[in-house]
Structures are given as C-alpha cells and as structure tokens.
Model the fold of this input.
Amino acid sequence: MPPTPRTGRTTVSRHLPARRPFDAPGLLAFLATRAIPGVEEVSGTTYRRTLLLGHGPAVVELTLTDDGADVLLTLSDPADEADVTGRCRLLLDLTADPSAVDEVLGADPDLRPLVAAAPGRRVPGAADPVEMAVRAVLGQQISVAGARTLAARLVVALGTPLPWPQGALTHTFPTAPALAQAPDSVLAMPASRRRTLRGLAAALAEGKVVLDPTGDRDEAERALLALPGVGPWTAAYLRMRALADPDIFLGTDLGVRKALAALGITDSSGSRWRPYRSYAVVHLWASLHS
Done:
C-alpha cells in the first residue's frame, strides 16, 4: 500500500552507537561519491537524505562521530521512527564487530596495510532497498558517476517532491511501481537495461523479490537471478549492500580487479578473507583512491 499522507512534521534526535573503531571518514567518502542529487548530500561529517516511509516522507540527518552517529529525523509521523532508525543502522553498518573483522583481514599480509590505515571500516548498507536495486542495475558496465547521473534524472522525472524541501534535498527516490511503469523517454538507457530495470521494479512492487536483510538471503538471490538481465554481479552486490551479507566477494567487479592487480594478488575468490569478504571488497575499493 502507498504511504498514508500526513501534513505535519515531527523532529526526533538521538545517538546511534557503534563499536569502536568506527571508520566514519571512509563511510562519508563512499556515500559522498555516490550521493544522488535531490535525494542525498554530504557536507563535512554529515550525511543527509530523504526517504519515503510508511506514513509519508522523511529527512534523515546523520552526523558521524568516532563512536556512531548523531541522528536528526524529520518525520511525517512519529510512528515511522523505529523503521527509519533501523534503516540508519543498516546504512552505516552500526551492528558490525570491527575487532573481529580487522583481526581476520589484518592477519593477511596483503590487506594488513589497508586495515591499519582504516581500522573499523564498514560496509555501507541500503536505507532504501528499491533505490539500491535500481542503482545496481544502473551501474552495470558504467562508472559510478554515470550511474549517479542516471539516478538523478529518474528522481526529477519520477520522484515525489518533498512537501517541505530542505536545502538541496527536494525529492524522495521513485517507488517501484513508478519505475515499473516509466515510459521509454524517462528511462534513457540501452533497451536491454531498460527491460531489466522495469522487470526488477515490477518484481519488487509485486513482492516477487524481497530485499529484507532479516529474510532469506539465498531465496532473495534466487529470485533476483530469475529476472532477465540480472546476473551474478548484480545479485551479489545487492546481497552485500541491501541484504547485509558480510561474506560476499565481487571477484568480477572492475574496481576489485584493479585493486587486486595493484596489490599483486592473483586469487580472485577472496576465500582467505572469509567470513568477512564484503569488508575486504570495501577495503579494495577504497585502496583505489588512497
């Protein structure tokens, strides 16, 4: 069912703790590079974004500290507080055990310098699983900047305007039904990717694909792979970011391959980094910009 519209606003502030060490700079850099204009922005140590929740739109402001995040929520209805708080924890990977992750990855001589340079690195999750699924399809075979540009165009054409814009935040990301019914003129991309995007959006809207980190990850992956145009990379990427799987290795990812080559690593399976291969992937991505 679509969100129930509300006209009022409720402001809530709280602190969400994280186990130390907490690599806030790494998270902010990752989110800033991929921020969709109109929906997200990063300024200093603060990440802000819009969300469409069960009772209407919301704006989330997360100021990252060395032990978590100071949160300021602007909600259409206070009933959405628990939902959006859970999304914030997932987005920032606040439930991770960084000591356990760093112990495993830091024991590897190839990753040891990366772990030492950024202890407590997190795997950025998904505050909006539909948005993350769309990002994954848009990112097929194009750069991060190119995918961001395409996502911004979708927001302008199909997103819902905020009833109370805040700075650069003007819209919520398009819903799955809106994307499934979008005309060709809005989906300015190759025809094959357009079909994939519509098919994935329809499956999400109809509940044939459920991206719930508390659900069955294997079932979600099978449902994703059954869709035309959704291959192993897309399914694995969503399993890592939308389903919070800590042990996914994107061995065919271009960025991962470049990082492995730069470090002289020939093993493309990442098996020695189990059960925290997702964290190894984020370290490898970050190494390309260090």
About this structure: The longest strand covers residues 56-65. The first helix runs from residue 24 to 34.
